[in-house]
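Q: My collaborator sent me two sequences in one message, no labels, and asked for predicted structures for both. Can we handle them in order? The first one she listed is below.
A: Yes, handling them in the order given. First sequence, followed by its structure tokens:
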Amino acid sequence: MNRAADVAVAGFGLLVAAPILGIAAAGVKLADGGPVLYRQQRVGKDGVEFELLKLRTMVVGAETKGAGAAVDEGDSRITGPGTLLRRLSIDELPQLWNVIRGDMSVIGPRPTLRYQVEKYDERQLHRLDVKPGLTGWAQIHGRAQLPWADRIELDLWYVEHRSPAIDLKILLRTPLALFGGTYKGETGGWKPSG
């Protein structure tokens, strides 16, 4: 999507989602008194890092406990409200602000962590040729239920074939994909090497 379309879609999305975000934020705050937003450095277009925003769904400091960055279903670090927010992908709604800021696009490969990017081969680095997205080709084809290598291949296919028609197809299929799996398992989406 072009920048004007991104801003229009994200702005409209924030307007529509404002009541849901308000209720969700109150639930997060009331659960344990911690911060409402979770901020994490992710890798965007051309390898430039940016601060990704999410509603916090885990206990404060979760990334230093248990499985670290990996999250699986039933993870004890997930808060009560966090379970519902993750199931419905409401925790991702603050990323509409990332789109408005220009860090992300509505459609593109999901933004990843630096340690994941460091494992890309030369071809896989082309995943960073476009802005990361709220939703994308890999999201409508299985999300985190797919092995990491398969997701990268789907993202690379999108980078090479993106068009307004494909973007529209992704937008139309995203609501159904939202209720698929969101958990990555103990390897955080990476297949162990060897």
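Q: And the one she listed second?
A: Here it is, processed independently of the first:
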Amino acid sequence: MKSIILCLICTGFLLGCNSQDSATISATGTIEATDVTLSAQAGGQVKHVIADEGDVVQIGDTLLLIDKTDWIYQMEQMRGGYEMAEAQFQLALKGAREEDVIQAEANYTNAEADLKRMEELYRAKSVSEKQLDDARTRFTVSQQVWEKTKRGSRQEEIDAARARRDQTKAQMASLQKKVNDCVVVSPITGTVTKRFIEQGELASTGTALYRISDLSTMDITIYVSESNLPKVKLNQKAIVHIDAFQKKEYEGKVIFISSTAEFTPKNIQTNDERTKLVFSVKVKVPNPDGTLKAGIPADVTLPIAN
């Protein structure tokens, strides 16, 4: 997630909202850098700090290592649960083994023959009614077991086994991601402008680790009056000067023009200027040599085409 840091919103109001030269619009703003604050996605002790403040990093460069031992143990435990759930799903899918079907049929046949004998003995008054009822119960149970074994698992049982399998698979994938997240890599190409943690410290999920700034281009937000707004166009050329390099010009272009008016920022001093409605305009300036620094004021001139 990108956030614009160091955005001391432009002191940048036009001097009276108009330049003395009608062919240009002049304003002052504050140079801003695009920053990414990188946070821990997996908790653990910081084992090794690789990147430090001032280092230039590329996308995918390893910045820091977090101890992943606990996450590996949890993942291996979940892997065992997944393999068990997969086996149960396959068992439900295939149904009973052939030998189980044969055994169930044999039990049913024996129970049926036993019930017939008990009925004959009961008619001859050689056994009690309870013994006959017990034989009927054994016959009924063995019949149901045999029919269930032949039929195999119900669709609901198969669906439940599949759901348990998929659930443990997703949990295992989540833990694998935690293991991977213990290797912290840069999401952008830029410069490490802040390191928030030291080796040996315990990082929790969400703990800020680094701030990485893209210093190859810088942004300057200025404000123009309603009367000057029609003169500003997207991709319009902008000339930038900063006090530290009075003789050097930086060329940029307009990349954003607000469609909503706002009151002049509070840091404008005169009562007259504070009551004016203005529109924000963002200018992007290449910074290949890194001379432009975030937070310093800059004068912006927008030439107006005749």
